[in-house]
Amino acid sequence: MGKENRNTIFIDEGQVHSIREFPDRQYIMRIEAPKVAATARPGSFVHVRCNPKIPMRRPISLMRVNADAGWVEIYFKVLGDGLAALSDTAIGECVSILGPIGNGFSANPESKTQLMIGGGVGIPPMLFLAEHLNSDPNHDWSPVVFMGSESPFPFDLKASGIELSGIPADATGCLPEMEDCGIPSRLASQQSYEGVHKGFVTDLAAAWLLANPELQANTEIFACGPEPMLHAAAKLASEFGIDAQLCLEEYMACAVGGCAGCAVEVHTPNGTSMKRVCVDGPVFKAREIYVQ
Ligand SMILES: Cc1cc2nc3c(=O)[nH]c(=O)nc-3n(C[C@H](O)[C@H](O)[C@H](O)COP(=O)(O)OP(=O)(O)OC[C@H]3O[C@@H](n4cnc5c(N)ncnc54)[C@H](O)[C@@H]3O)c2cc1C
Ligand code: FES
């Protein structure tokens, strides 16, 4: 582990409290992890041992943490052997997680609206950020949340009662977890899901920005999701002249800064350099990743 990460990344071997299964091999798992929960930030992630027989851990974003109760919640979609093994873990069994890792999102207190765009397995850090800002006793943040998924959303969607101007008429549904604490949210998919806009999640963000010109100058974008979605979010930010932070989900080996396997090219005013997504990110400014 690199020197800079000593005493900030911990190992918790905690019991699985609950695991809920959703279509398309999606899971939400709650794990006892008091040390990780104590210092986790939105955008930080954990490196999970999926099964003692599988040596490579898998990086998974934190979706929800409760520092008082000492647990973390993750949402994952099975692609291969690692997460398939993790999904087989029974309640009460222990899972080893290393974290919290990485530099998370940092919202600008001067911004008026925090526009969140999450896609697929990029949804969890956006939920964490929205709930974190909403419960901040020291600042009055105004998150607006747009989520996209090509699998059925792992949430019990409901019709929204919070108005959002400019949004396409087919986007009527919302995430109850957001709505219930007053955060407006809308959903998008290429699939035909009831209450969900048929199109890209960035279409919703663009429609909202266009309909709210008075808010454009004071809006900040936060995004996590597949690369084409991140690119579209960065383009949107550039077109509207607003700042954006992107959370990257590169393949990782060590996840603690030691192997450089996750390095990406980053553009700064001083030139181009390579940064490790695991410990220098996973959150970067959009203009550091995409030159528009
Ligand atoms: C910071 C971060 C946060 C993440 N958060 C989440 C999350 O919250 N939820 C979630 O579901 N996923 C998340 N991911 C993605 C997840 O870690 C990967 O998709 C993981 O590899 C899936 O594990 P698996 O065992 O299901 O599949 P794997 O066995 O890892 O295989 C997945 C697919 O990727 C291919 N693959 C594996 N390794 C490589 C490689 N080095 N290069 C190219 N292709 C490769 C495989 O062939 C296969 O098609 C995150 C990733 C990062 C870096
Ligand atoms: S995964 Fe090893 S340095 Fe990032």
Describe the structure.
- There is one protein chain.
- The longest helix is centred in the last third of the chain and has 14 residues, at 227-240.
- Helix content is 21%, strand content 33%.
- By secondary structure, the chain is an alpha/beta fold.
- Strands 4-3-7-1-2-6-5 form a seven-stranded antiparallel sheet.
- The protein has eight helices and 18 strands.
- The mean pLDDT is 94.
- FE2/S2 (inorganic) cluster (FES) binds at residues 252-255, 257-262, 276, 278.
Task: Write a brief structural summary.
The chain has 292 residues and is of the alpha/beta class.
What is the overall number of helices? 8
CATH class assignment of the largest domain = Alpha Beta
Number of domains in the coordinates? 2
| Global shape | globular
Order of helices and strands: EEHEEEEHEEHEEEHEEHHEHEEEEH
Q: Which band does the percent of strand residues land in? A: 25-35%
How many DSSP-defined strands?
18
- Measured as a percent range, the helix fraction is 10-25%
Give the strand order of the largest sheet, numbering strands 1, 2, ... along the chain: 4-3-7-1-2-6-5
**Roughly how many Å is the radius of gyration?**
18 Å
**Head-to-tail CA distance between termini:** 35 Å
Q: Keywords, please?
A:
seven-stranded mixed sheet, binds flavin-adenine dinucleotide, seven-stranded antiparallel sheet, alpha/beta, Rossmann fold, 33% strand, 2 domains, binds FE2/S2 (inorganic) cluster, 292 residues, Elongation Factor Tu (Ef-tu), domain 3
